[in-house]
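As agreed, record minuted below.
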Amino acid sequence: MQQTDFLVIGSGIGGLTYALKVAQHFPDKKILVMTKATADETNTKYAQGGVAVVNDLENDSFEKHIEDTLIAGDGLCNPEVVEIVVKEGPDRIRDIINWGARFDKEADGDYKLGREGGHSEFRILHHKDVTGREMERALLEAVSKQKNIEIIKHCFVIDIITQHHLGYLVTKATPDIECFGVYVLNLHTNRVEKIHSKITLLATGGNGQVYRTTTNPSIATGDGVAMVYRAKGRIENMEFIQFHPTALFEQGVNGQAFLITEAVRGDGGILRNKNEEAFMEKYDPRQDLAPRDIVARAIDSEMKKTGTEHVWLDCRHFKKEKFIEHFPNIYEKCLSIGIDITKQMIPVAPAAHYSCGGIKTDEWGRSSIRNLYACGECASTGLHGANRLASNSLLEAMVFAYRCYEDVIEKIKSVSFNSAIPDWKAEGTTEPKEMILITQSRKELQLLMSDYVGIVRNDVRLQRAMRRLDLLWEETEHLYESATLSPQLLELRNLITVGYLIVKGATFRKESRGLHYNTDYPGKSTLVQNIVL
């Protein structure tokens, strides 16, 4: 059993930004950061494109960035939150630059600014095509200099501890559900430990692994969202799953796909179909720079019309030196599989990329459970609405990490530890006889989500998905009750919960809006609402 003043679950940009701010303000208090893998294995690390922020007020404005975000969000953004993120963004960028993050500069010293789909101006700061990796590096270096931050790796958080674990009946209607800490599976000892915390922040990232092909790493299994749902916290807008239009297509490769950043199209990359025709003008006047939901559906449509598994991204007209300077990682990856971008087009197809919904929070990052905060991709702050504007995610994570920190400054003074938390009970469980019971269920889940709950949906597919999810849930819960815990089993359990929440939200939404397109309801409803579960 451990006690900590501040507990952070997740070591991406949201969790580390928060930890740094808290550590600097409270040098006498303990901050514990927990991650189920290595410290840098996060969704942040794989963010290529950059971070959207207004820092050129001569050619850009907060109002333009706000308007672009609202348009992309298709009527479901919270305008107050959009204004908060856009206007507080420059200060948070200054923070991470002060911590050592390096963004690309012009010869005169000004920052290079890129443009991506849905943006009306050039406002994307980037570090070549590995922006997330650079920001993660800077944050980890800054954290290593703080004596009161401890990072514990290879620990899998099982559940949030609430009154439920003290023997009380907790339901969605229970007022003042409170977080006392977490139960965690220590992968070094294979023992379940309890962590007491006064304040807990969930920064657990996305859930792309619920689909067969995703740009997310293997750790993106929706753990935070699933834990909050089990704890009877509020989850919203899970039906809005963003499929990145241009993941590198490699025959026979499932799981994590290599991302071809939207910045390539921002620099002039052209999407072409099987017949090498540029097709985006048929779908949107913004052509290749339309928002991601539109581009992904257009690619999906072209693939179905021509019976192909991918379309092409044409960069043959780029100057080789400029491409290598801006996109060295992409150039090397393509070359490694035999594609010279100066002579050949890049095969691309949509892949699950980002969850716009998640743990419902207010403008200070507070969840519906007391003393439990959330930020980053696992949170639904109201910024993204029905579709995230490109490169707004890193900005949102930093802004809300800071706002969570601001809110806990006073709150921590009135929170005490709960000493009545029981130990985890594992009596009567045994090692699973066959690991295939877990691995095959995960494959089934990813297949049904990809086939029935993908870019385009309908009621029959959603009903089929729910019936199959019910069976997977029953089988997995039985295994969870009887088998010794493992990361594979815990991830499967969380993924099934996330899949259920996506399907449930999609079933409730009787319209097509943003990232949710249902052929049975092709128009928008006059009732604009968030689906809260």
